[in-house]
Design a protein that fits this description.
CATH class of one domain: Alpha Beta
Largest sheet: 8 strands, mixed
Mean pLDDT: 94
Shape: globular
Distance between the termini: 57 Å
Number of strands: 40
Structural class: alpha+beta
CATH architecture of one domain: 3-Layer(aba) Sandwich
Helix content: 10-25%
CATH topology of one domain: Rossmann fold
Low-confidence stretches: 1-24
């Protein structure tokens, strides 16, 4: 066991420090309270460990002081931030309507109203040919009404029963991703009192009465227990997952025949299931969990369709009959392709759409089951994002998908899989005279130090000269196998129109180049993520896209870890950094098994209770590698109620960095003390104001003040 010793300085001294902060424009200096732990025979000192004491009033006072300091240091930015907010807002059609989605006899959609923070969820009756425009609108859920008297309102699940008579939904009003379950009778309008707490996913059985839901552990927030609830009865526990590496969720197959329970770790999966028409049956194991085997399941016409990585690094698809799902009964359906990741499938009665990813781009392949023929459809731009849309209807020949690029706004299409006709249903309207012909996007390839080619997505205003003088905003994530999409952002137009290049580095740790791309940026290869980013930045500079004193970088959450790591490794390479909700206190977090995400992420980052992993993680942990040297300008943003990366990680990082760095560059911490979550504010106007401030600050670092 680790030996732990605590030392405290008098509280009065800490309070005097806070008072001094409030009275002076000088940077806040957090109280230092010695704290020591012995890890693997090594004594670790952490003078800012006390900042994790959330209920300690000294903590709130320190964070308030940081916020006050930020306000004092950014007063001159306010006119620019206000102007940017109006600019960003001016591109948005504030009163708008989503594309309706058919579910049975109803068409469901959401709409927004100018001046209201949240969308309104609605539906109308339809016919065989489409939505009945004369039908009366039924408001299912007005999030603005739910949010009255609250500073935060997050909507989680939104599930309508098969017969369309009941709505099951979950809400969070703290930002801590702690959702309560409600059921609304859509015939009477009556809404239940909260039926359960800490709900993570929900699903109806086909009797339109029985519901299944998963809940999380109160301490670790691991989704670990499945419940069944019959009408008028208390919830009954169906299954509890004891292994702390695994989390669960519940759903149904596309044809609605089976309730599926997903139980997954980073490197393996187990699914359990039951007949949706027999909700009181015992769950059956589909395939038992097996080290390094990940799979997913759907169902059609007496066959299970299994996406599996067994013998297939980038996944393949097999089928198995209902009566025998063992591997010996599998039949190859989509073979493994070492050059393309089989990212997912959309299964219909007569068609299937496979989404593959290669070179950072998604592509669609369609099979007509009756004809037995596959066909592809392509996209026109060199850099884009394409993804499945809402396709709840099993017996349909229409595949809905979304398409966008850095210069093409989000576009919703219906693709007729029988006639191969593609129909644009809606493209997000960008107000203010947006003209895509004024911009250009490219796919570039930076060479990493080990010879690997790293894809970059770059967008800029036409007429750009490659002279090394352009400001460039470089974004990246690079973790968990989540690829960064080359998506459209109307906000980015405010950068491009000011001569700023916007770029995404698709570094290892994501899945842009297949599953191996993730493997090469995790565990004992995690440093590839950071060196890929550094090498991409150097490549952009060497090829005259920008220069050190014009390079702005940004990342959030695990991308915030990236920001902290590369800033420690090459502080000379960047002009300014925005680290959003950054995972920077890696060792303290990963050594504490009671914190959300920790144990389940041993398979992503490593288990620091093992000495080799401990040494490797410690070599890049941003908080543990702060040194007395010059750093670039840094803005750190967080929320007091963040449940994914606790506020104290960025707070401790800033406190330690403030007394260590030897430069006079700005270092600011912005902590939202009101309810807010990992993604910041829940209201769309509030979120846009935060974005405008962050943009104004970053642009100001390269001399752009208006």
């Amino acid at each position: 066991m680790n030996a732990t010793t605590f030392f405290r300085i008098p509280a009065t001294l800490a309070l005097l420090t806070v008072v001094a902060m409030a009275e002076s424009p000088k940077p806040p200096v957090a109280a230092r309270k010695p704290h020591k732990e012995v890890r693997h025979g090594e004594t670790i000192s952490d003078d800012y460990f006390w900042l994790r004491e959330k209920s300690n009033p000294e903590v709130a006072k320190y964070l308030d002081a940081e916020n006050a300091f930020l306000e004092s240091q950014t007063k001159e930015l306010k006119p620019f931030a206000d102007a940017l907010y109006k600019e960003l807002l001016g591109r948005i059609k504030q009163t708008d309507l989503s594309v309706p989605v058919r579910r049975g006899e109803w068409f469901y959609y959401s709409r927004t109203v100018e001046g209201q923070q949240y969308p309104i969820q609605c539906r109308k009756h339809g016919s065989a040919t489409g939505i009945d425009q004369d039908a009366k609108e039924e408001i299912l859920l007005d999030q603005n009404e739910l949010a009255k008297g609250k500073k935060y309102l997050g909507l989680g699940s939104f599930d309508v029963s098969d017969d369309g008579k009941k709505l099951m939904f979950t809400t969070d009003d703290t930002g801590f991703r702690q959702y309560k379950l409600f059921i609304k009778d859509l015939e009477t309008g009556a809404v239940s009192s909260p039926l359960a707490e800490r709900v993570t996913s929900t699903e109806w059985a086909s009797d339109n009465a029985t519901v299944f839901f998963a809940t999380e552990d109160a301490v670790t927030k691991r989704s670990d227990t499945l419940w069944r609830m019959d009408p008028g009865m208390a919830p009954q526990k169906v299954y509890e997952e004891k292994d702390e590496l695994y989390r669960m969720g519940v759903g149904r197959t596309k044809d609605k025949k089976f309730v599926m329970v997903y139980i997954g770790a980073t490197d393996s999966t187990e699914m359990r299931y039951l007949d949706a028409a027999r909700p009181k049956d015992e769950l059956k194991v589909f395939l038992p969990r097996e080290k390094d085997h990940k799979y997913g399941v759907d169902h059609r016409e007496g066959l299970f369709y299994i996406r599996t990585n067994k013998g297939a690094k980038n996944f393949r698809m097999v089928t198995a009959p209902d009566a025998d799902i063992s591997p010996k009964a599998w039949k190859e359906f989509i073979p493994h392709d070492p050059a393309a990741l089989l990212e997912g499938v959309e299964l219909f009665k007569d068609f299937i759409v496979a989404t593959t990813k290669s070179e950072g781009l998604n592509r669609f392949r369609v099979l007509d089951f009756k004809k037995g023929q596959w066909h592809n459809f392509a996209f026109p731009e060199p850099v884009y994002a394409a993804f499945d849309g809402a396709n709840p209807e099993f017996d349909s020949h229409m595949f809905r998908f979304g398409y966008q690029s850095p210069i093409t706004p989000n576009s919703v299409f219906d693709y007729d899989m029988a006639t191969r006709k593609k129909t644009l249903l809606k493209q997000t309207e960008v107000l203010g005279g947006f003209d895509p012909s004024k911009y250009e996007c490219k796919r570039l390839w930076a060479e990493a130090r080990d010879g690997v080619k790293v894809p970059l997505s770059v967008v800029y205003r036409k007429g750009l000269k490659l002279n090394g003088k352009n400001p460039l905003w470089l974004y990246a994530y690079g973790s968990y196998g989540y690829g960064s999409s080359a998506a459209f952002s109307s906000n980015n137009l405010s950068l491009l129109d000011r001569g700023v290049v916007f770029a995404i580095a698709h570094i290892r740790g994501g899945n842009e180049m297949g599953e191996a791309w993730h493997d090469d940026g995790m565990l004992m290869k995690k440093r590839n993520t950071f060196t890929d980013f550094i090498d991409s930045a150097e490549w952009l500079q060497a090829n005259k896209w920008t220069s050190k004193d014009r390079l702005l970088i940004e990342g959030g959450s695990a991308g915030g870890l990236l920001m902290g790591a590369v800033t420690n490794m090459r502080p000379d390479l960047f002009k300014a950094v925005h680290a959003a909700v950054p995972f920077v206190d890696v060792m303290n977090t990963m050594m504490d098994a009671t914190l959300p995400l920790t144990v389940g992420e041993y398979l992503e980052w490593g288990n620091p209770n093992e000495k080799p992993a401990y040494n490797y993680m410690k070599s890049y942990s941003p908080y543990d590698n702060i040194e007395k040297k010059n750093y670039p300008a840094i803005l750190v943003t967080t929320s007091f109620n963040d449940s994914q990366v606790m506020y104290w990680e960025p707070a401790k990082y800033v406190a330690k960095l403030r007394v260590s760095k030897t430069d006079s560059n700005p270092l600011l911490l912005k902590c939202k003390m009101d309810p807010a979550g990992h993604g910041g504010a829940s209201g769309r106007y509030d979120a846009l104001k935060d974005k405008a401030f962050e943009m104004a600050w970053m642009l100001g670092q390269v001399g752009i003040k208006k």
